[in-house]
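Predict both folds.
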Amino acid sequence: MQIYIQVKQLGKRKASIEAQKFIIEDSLFTVYDLLYDIVTKQVDKFNHRAIGNIDDEPTLLNYLSLTQIENQSPSGKISFNLDYRQQKQDIQSAFDNVIMAFNDGLFRIFLNDNELSSLEEKIKLQENDKLTFIRLTMLSGRIW
């Protein structure tokens, strides 16, 4: 099933990441399952990315096409997406971090403008649903 995922940050008018297509399992029943599926796919994608090429094909010369530059422009950073350290991430620790951040209120999830407030909340995803993550940032400052 195809849904759209968008990430926003409070205080910004535009989304920091434009809505992106995301293929999701049809058997998701709770917010917990949804988060696990998203984290698993994103960590797998990160771990399978070779230096300069997501398709694991070696490249002789890295360059950015005009399309790649245009696609990266909305995020405010244009790069080769190189990972020189080639460190693989652990799915379980990444998922544990997401669950902790959700429980601590560091981000909110909305499914078609309805907030998903609990990990055990039942959800029914349909084709082309819009999932929005809103990152909440803590204000910091000095007392004097």
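Second protein follows, with its predicted structure tokens after the sequence.
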Amino acid sequence: MSGPDKPKVIGEEWSDERVKSFLAITPYDSNINPDFNALIKAYQAMIAEDFDRFVGFFVEAGRDLNAVDENGETILDLVSRHRRSTAYAETLRKAGAKTTAEAGS
């Protein structure tokens, strides 16, 4: 995160440990799916290359790529609406993620 007292860092290297640390992020609300929460937090914080590594660790840990949010949407549903997130969507699809429409068919 950046702000007036915290300058944005460009080109920062993320270690595997830092990327994996997002697996331990828990939602503040017990009604939020922990797998969806970890995915959305990683998506919001990571560049596409680090997110690709995270998804590999996520799947390796047996987590659910098709977990849904409180509106019944998957992370791929959300990412697919962002025109600058095609690399993220490709990573998710490659790992087996589906949109809600695809999962229902």
